[in-house]
Amino acid sequence: MNTPRFADQDALVVQDVVKRFNVASQPWWRQWFGHTTNGQEPANGEPKPLKARRGKELITAVDHVSFTVRRREIFGVLGPNGSGKSTLIRLLSTLLLPDEGTVHVFGLDVAKHEMQVKRLINRVSVEAAFFKKLSPKENLLYGARLYGVSGAEADRKAREILKRLGLRESSYTSPMEDMSRGMQQKVAIARAFLTQPILLLLDEPTTGLDPRSKLEVQSFVNELRDVHDATILITTHDMNEADALCDRIAILDDGKIVAMDTPEGLKQLINRNGHAPTLEDVFMELTGKELIEKDDLEDFEPEKVLT
Ligand SMILES: Nc1ncnc2c1ncn2[C@@H]1O[C@H](COP(=O)(O)OP(=O)(O)OP(=O)(O)O)[C@@H](O)[C@H]1O
Ligand SMILES: [Mg+2]
Description:
By secondary structure, this protein is α/β, with parallel strands linked by helices. It has helices at residues 28-32, 85-92, 114-120, 136-146, 151-164, 181-194, 211-228, 239-245, 263-267, 279-295, 302-306, and strands at 10-24, 56-70, 74-78, 100-105, 108-109, 121-124, 199-203, 231-235, 248-253, 256-261. It has one domain: Rossmann fold (3-Layer(aba) Sandwich), CATH 3.40.50. The chain has 11 helices and 10 strands. The chain is globular and about 60 Å long. Adenosine-5'-triphosphate is lined by residues 21, 23, 59, 61, 79, 81-87.
């Protein structure tokens, strides 16, 4: 099924992907002057911005993004709130279709082979959907059935995973709606690890988890790669987690990739006058500084702030 232009070791090939959304309008004067693409005027010679739906404004959530993830790689996507991480993950998992560009999972075009791609991937997100009246056990066994895992096997594995994540035995059979957000998050993680996807897409899997559970999730991710040869794409706001876990990292800002390298390579991008920079320094430099310069520096008068 692989097309020749993909190397055998490529798990995920994202080529020039764009995703736009119609969102509630900005003030009338913005639309009046034709600010439709992220509020920016097109430069001379660029094609005219696309038209938004009536009463709406068009924003570009993912803006010409390209990257390749190799088999058995743990690839991190970092970026500020609203930079397009979750949209990107939805595009990779067939939940959304790109407006432009292509996504291939093990050589399969996600737009053309949706069902085949779905069998190869699994996605965990912070807003995981469950049958809230049912227990984790019922939810997980239902999920496992869909993937053809037997009930007894799924039950054994689910108990083992949830025990490692520190979920009380009694919670396993109580309704999901009575559980805290962190507890529900653990069930979502267990669901992803129950089946053995060869590409696992994790959208902030550890947000809201206590430190011990975070480490357990990280060790699950490593295990899945080391023992089961899985490829993992993960988004996180925890820079230490990204540094410890990821082989390579892409930093997204305003829908665009602003840097992509190994954690060490990213740290070499910035100069800290002899001090070893952290990944957080790199993130701040690449995503924060530009915003401050653009919006604030022109009007910034230090004396006024100090007095
Ligand atoms: N279904 C949607 N309809 C309209 N706009 C959307 C939709 N989903 C996302 N967006 C917009 O796309 C942009 C990117 O959102 P996205 O959720 O991908 O960001 P994110 O990087 O995951 O942010 P966070 O760190 O807060 O999770 C935002 O401006 C958001 O408002
Ligand atoms: Mg998100």
